[in-house]
Amino acid sequence: MSITSQAEDTASMIPGDLYDYLVSLTRQATATFIAQEGIAIELEQLPIDLRFSAQASFGDYSVPLQSWAKILRRPPINIAKGIAAILQDMQAPAITEISVTNGFLNYRLDRPAAGRNVIERVLDEGADFGQNDIGVGTKVVVEHTAINSNKAAHVGHLRNSCLGDTLVRMLRSQGYNVEANNYIDDTGVQVADVVVAFTLLQEGLLELPEGNEQLPGESFDYYCSRLYVAVGRAYEQQPELLERRKAMMRAVEHGEEPYAQLAADLSNKIVRAHLATMARLNISYDLLTWESAIIGAGLWQRTFEMLRDRGVLEHPEEGPAAGCWIVPFGNGDAQTDEGERMSDKILVKSDGTATYTGKDIAYQLWKFGLSDSLGVDFHFVPWGRQHDGRLLWTMLAKKPADDTTEADPRRFGHGKRVITVIDVRQSYLQQVVYESLRRLGYVEQADNSTHFAYEVVTLSAATAASLGVDTSDGHESYAMSGRKGIEVKADDLINKAVARMQETKPDLPNETAAALAASAIRYFMIRFNQQQIITLDMDEALRPNGDTGVYLQYAYARANSILRKLDESGYAIPDQLETLPDQLEQSEWELLRHIDAYPRTLADTARALAPNMLGAYVYDLAAHFSDFYEHTTPILKESNEAVKAFRAQLVRAAVQTMANALRLMGFVPLERI
RNA sequence: GUCCCCGUAGCUUAGUGGAUAGAGCGCUCGCCUCCGAAGUGAGAGACCGCAGGUUCGAUUCCUGUCGGGGACGCCA
């Protein structure tokens, strides 16, 4: 029941990765089988679900065939045996054993030969190992981060930006032309609130508990967070101030000075603070888009007219939405705990201003390039160079001064597909946006709109208590509230992570500690399933061992250390593996299989838009490297030249794969910690 | 009221129909005179909320039910 093959000449005969090779072998054998049996059926109806064998005793790779029984009208065991017999006769290279257990077809490979094939492919492709070209020619617009420009970012925003940035990297790895948009909602009530706070301060009508001035060392966004909380409290205590808030919103929207300029300056400074925070986690963008620009350029007005003229909107004269422009939904009103609510969505308030959702429809049209025909012009100018060298552009409503560099407007937006990263509480509004596109006749664009929804971040009881929240009601977690100041700010989390790294290893250089902290936080933010609420506990989030980003970096650094030691010992790793080891250790083979699976796993996780699955893969890869490291004798001391060369090459391949994978998660791989 | 999500070991969780449910933390006992102990070996710990159903096969799909969270605003 086994076929032996010459190790020397087989490796080059395995096309592509081991998975593709075995799938293609199985398909060939299956085609022969159904021809032999005289079964009239398309091969495509028989899915080949190749996976790692559940146990080493079964084989290396297995295909379950039970589901074929009904289609082929034969017992699974007969199918498996028939196909196995055909495979035996095929004498395929690098296969040492074909067996059948239960309803599974199992392959055992010539491990040294297959392993060499994997190593050669990785080292040959280098930094491109894992890259795919399936997305070439397809533009994808990804919106993420999108923090209101009135206060500091908190950990909820980090979940958004870490997921979004990882998605962007994953899609780019598949060849997609990805444009990362950071949408700034600078016309909303929150910005007006902070402007109100500034005016109240000037008039001596507002007292901040920690002091009215910006504190020494306090960043501007943190200061604004304090103002925001204070003005919120003032509204509660003096409801007459709410009039002032309304007036301020109008003033900002209508460009009344000095308020409009104050609001614009405020947004600008806050956005710079947010970008600086995100840069600490190696997150960058291609374009800043502004709600104020969408209004200022007239895109919202044109969008409204189109919605109205194509009959998407209704304009009721009585009822709860009298005088508003609405998108009708559902049938009638809904009963809620707080009373009646209508299921229709208001896009234009009775005072003539747009709601957030209305403006979001306009923006969605722009992302698809659908606003071109509306005669609305935007201007795109450089905002600045980011930490990673990527140039960030910003959208303007009005033509800039003549000497300013302007980009071709067709370069931005015009996505074939649009992905919006926002938390799950926005699901209903996202559906309104997509449904509105559909009703405008843009069915394809509606279908190509994806709400990448993720659950919120809450605080564990211990962490909430440390922020001064009263936890005597005994809940397990507490919601954050920027308005009440109950939140863990992004920079605080990063600072604490850096400090924790330095506690763990006191002589750590600052730069290394910063990179480790960023890795820890990024991994923490993507490792959970999107539907899972993250209950942030400081101790857990900052833990430097176990299933964490630090572990991944540590495994990578250890792997690099081996290469360094080999080099220092004067050993030159041969470029070609002339003689292969007689056999591989189980841990070596496991590592090789996982390396081989990287391109396919990456493609799967990108297709599924599942950063957490990428994280799980990388952890698995690092764990298998650690296993290999622990369960093989030190390469430096290895006396068998063939084994030494093979393992040295394997370490190089593992280092390359880990580096590629870590970069995809936005890590800066550390060769030394 | 309608709709959505979650429920897996003491805790945090992975698992997009397939062989014995996989980790991390914590706990017990080990491993640095051989490549980095932020590591690693062994052990204890899970009737996958509950009840039905579909299927050769269900943690996974469907129905119901219990528990928890969320959405349905002239806020964003």
| Shape type | globular
Radius of gyration, whole Å: 30 Å
Mean pLDDT: 93
Low-confidence stretches: 1-11
List the helices and strands and how they pair.
Blueprint: H1 18-37, E1 51-52, E2 61-64, H2 68-72, H3 76-90, E3 95-101, E4 104-109, H4 111-125, E5 139-143, H5 155-173, E6 177-184, H6 189-202, H7 220-237, H8 241-253, H9 259-280, E7 287-290, H10 291-296, H11 299-309, E8 325-327, E9 333-336, E10 339-342, E11 345-348, H12 356-367, E12 379-385, E13 391-396, E14 417-423, H13 427-439, H14 443-447, E15 449-454, E16 457-460, H15 461-466, E17 477-479, H16 490-504, H17 510-526, E18 534-536, H18 538-541, H19 549-568, H20 586-596, H21 598-607, H22 611-631, H23 641-664
Parallel strand pairs: 5-6, 5-14, 6-7, 7-13, 14-15, 16-18
Antiparallel strand pairs: 1-2, 2-4, 3-4, 8-11, 9-10, 12-13, 16-17
The chain binds one RNA strand of 76 nucleotides through strand 9, strand 11, helix 13, helix 19 and helix 22.
Looking at this protein, list some descriptive labels.
673 residues, alpha/beta, seven-stranded mixed β-sheet, four-stranded antiparallel β-sheet, 23 helices, 47% helix, globular, disordered N terminus, RNA-binding
What can you tell me about this protein's structure?
The radius of gyration is 30 Å and the shape is globular. The N terminus is likely disordered. It contains 23 helices and 18 strands. A hairpin with a 2-residue loop joins strand 3 and strand 4. The strands form 5 sheets. It has a 7-stranded mixed sheet, sandwiched between helices. The protein has a 4-stranded antiparallel sheet with strand order 1-2-4-3. Strands 17-16-18 form a 3-stranded mixed sheet. The protein has about 675 residues and is α/β, with parallel strands linked by helices. Helix 6 packs across helix 9. The structure holds one RNA strand of 76 nucleotides.
